[in-house]
Specification:
The complex is a heterodimer of chains A (about 210) and B (about 260). With about 210 residues, chain A is an all-alpha fold. The relative contact order of chain A is 0.14. The radius of gyration of chain A is 20 Å and the shape is globular. Chain A is about 85% helix and about 0% strand. With about 260 residues, chain B is mainly α. Helices cover about 75% and strands about 0% of the residues of chain B. Chain B is built from 13 helices and no strands. The longest helix of chain B has about 35 residues. Classes of the chains: A mainly alpha (about 210), B mainly alpha (about 260). Chains A and B meet through helix 3, helix 4, helix 5, helix 7 and helix 8 of A and helix 4, helix 7, helix 8, helix 9 and helix 12 of B.
């Protein structure tokens, strides 16, 4: 505990790095997944292709993807861009399917009612379909957030500073306190991400509260 | 950069001996296979019991909350704690296998549980009405009905295990991760990138094999392919019932319902 108190500044800095490395790809991934998911849902021929394609990304082990990124991006091995792009790909892998399924779960009767009320094309998507898909998309986003926080810690093996540093350093120095700090930090961070996403989804879906 | 990777991969010296590619692939498959079998032996019976009885659901939520623990942290913690207690050459293997099992149990458990729990009660009643006994209902109706979700659990567990077996090289485990970790420690990019390509290929191949297994093992009565050829009624009722507030993981069955609608 004294070790934690002595190093609280460092711990918070690493936690901040971890938040950026896991959080920014989550936001970018969501922004890219929304149109892709919509396309997959709208054009059924593309559904299989987009879902299978994004799913394949998730099969690539994280350490391998971090190492292969410089080859694809032309960056140096320790360029943080590698982690941002790799994590965005993982987020996409999970979210394209979620968005497509969320839009698909909008009841047909609701959609028809919206059409009857004069909602067309883009306006129906933004005002009816997308809001109703929020609970499903938020659920997928929560899974992606927890998985991102865990995967980012692997990047410490390559040498990117974040909470995973305490795991590798603690192991190399045979210092269990550091490993515990790393694990607890990651779990707490995952919990914070989860809470924020749940609160956000709760705030933008007021009808869910009335219905229950 | 690509030339050096190509050179590394085609160098005959890297294809023989204890540090050769075939040996490393074999090690990777053995560690992953052992861990998956142990995990399946724990998770499938447990999932069947919990899904069937509806009791002890906390085991599923406990296993799922374990997923928030970073696998790298789990690996180092178990290795540091157990490693010194094991004197033999298994000092790295046993902690790694324990962690791999811990990581493989949650997806298989929740897949089996969700599969068994989601069996249509009408199918269960029909089986009883036909005179099947408890064990028979389980073997002939519930397990086949649960198979799609059970197998997708096994599939994601497999990917998780292959990925984590790779980073287990950092606690001196063999397997393809050796090239990545050893390459990193001496800044040999050709070695680590070649290892990364091999691991990614292994993961893709295993996932492909499992998706074929999934396709062939699941009864045609469940996939909807059989039903759709017989009658072309749009399955509007089942899709409209789809509860938007239920974040249940999408299943293959849901896909087929969607196809029927479109």
């Amino acid at each position: 505990m004294t070790w934690v108190a002595d190093h609280i500044g460092d711990i918070l800095w690493y936690a901040g790095q971890h938040t950026l490395l896991a959080g920014i790809p989550l936001i970018i991934g969501l922004i890219i997944a929304l149109p892709l998911g919509w396309v997959a849902r709208r054009y059924s021929k593309l559904y299989g292709f987009l879902i299978a394609g994004s799913g394949l990304l998730y099969t690539i082990p994280s350490l391998a993807l971090f190492i292969l990124m410089p080859l694809i991006l032309g960056t140096r091995i320790l360029d943080t861009l590698n982690v941002y792009v790799a994590m965005t790909l993982y987020t996409l892998a999970l979210l394209v399917r979620t968005v497509a399924d969320g839009l698909g779960a909008v009841p047909d009767s609701t959609r028809q009612a919206a059409v009857a009320m004069g909602f067309t094309g883009m306006r129906r998507l933004l005002k009816v379909d997308l809001p109703l898909a929020v609970p499903v998309i938020a659920a997928g986003l929560r899974v992606a957030a927890v998985s991102n926080v865990s995967i980012v810690s692997v990047a410490s093996l390559v040498g990117f500073p974040q909470l995973g540093y305490y795991l590798t350093d603690g192991y190399q120095r045979t210092f269990p306190t550091e490993i515990i700090v790393g694990i607890v930090g990651c779990v707490l961070l995952a919990l914070i991400f989860d809470t924020v996403i749940r609160a956000g989804a709760w705030a933008i879906t007021p009808w869910q509260r009335v219905a229950r | 950069m690509l030339n050096s990777i190509g050179g590394w991969l085609t160098d005959p010296a890297h294809w023989t001996g204890p540090n050769g590619i075939p040996q490393r692939v074999l090690e990777h498959l053995i560690y992953s296979g052992i861990s998956l079998v142990i995990a399946a032996l724990i998770a499938i019976p447990l999932g069947v019991i919990v899904g069937h009885s509806g009791r002890a659901k906390w085991t599923v939520s406990l296993a799922n909350s374990l997923r928030a623990v970073p696998s790298l942290g789990l690996l180092f913690a178990v290795a540091l704690w157990l490693g010194p207690k094991i004197a033999s050459s298994l000092a790295y293997v046993i902690p790694s296998v324990i962690v791999l099992v811990l990581l493989a149990v949650p997806p298989i458990l929740s897949g089996t549980y969700a599969g068994i729990q989601g069996v249509d009660p009408a199918a269960r009643d029909a089986a009883k009405g036909m005179g099947m006994r408890g064990g028979e209902v389980l073997r002939k109706v519930e397990l086949p009905c649960a198979l799609p979700l059970l197998l997708s659990g096994v599939r994601s567990a497999t990917l998780q295990v292959i990925a984590t077996a790779t980073i287990a090289a950092s606690i001196s485990l063999g397997g393809l991760g050796r090239y990545l970790i050893d390459g990193l420690s001496v800044s040999d990019y050709a070695e680590m990138a070649s290892g990364a390509i091999l691991v990614a290929a292994l993961a893709l191949v295993m996932d492909g094999i499992l998706s074929i297994v999934q396709r062939t093992a699941v009864s045609p009565g469940l996939t909807g392919k059989f039903r759709n050829t017989r009658d072309n009624r749009p399955v509007v009722t089942t899709t409209a019932r789809g509860d938007a507030s239920d974040p249940a993981s999408p299943t293959d069955r849901a896909d087929d319902q969607r196809e029927a609608l479109v």
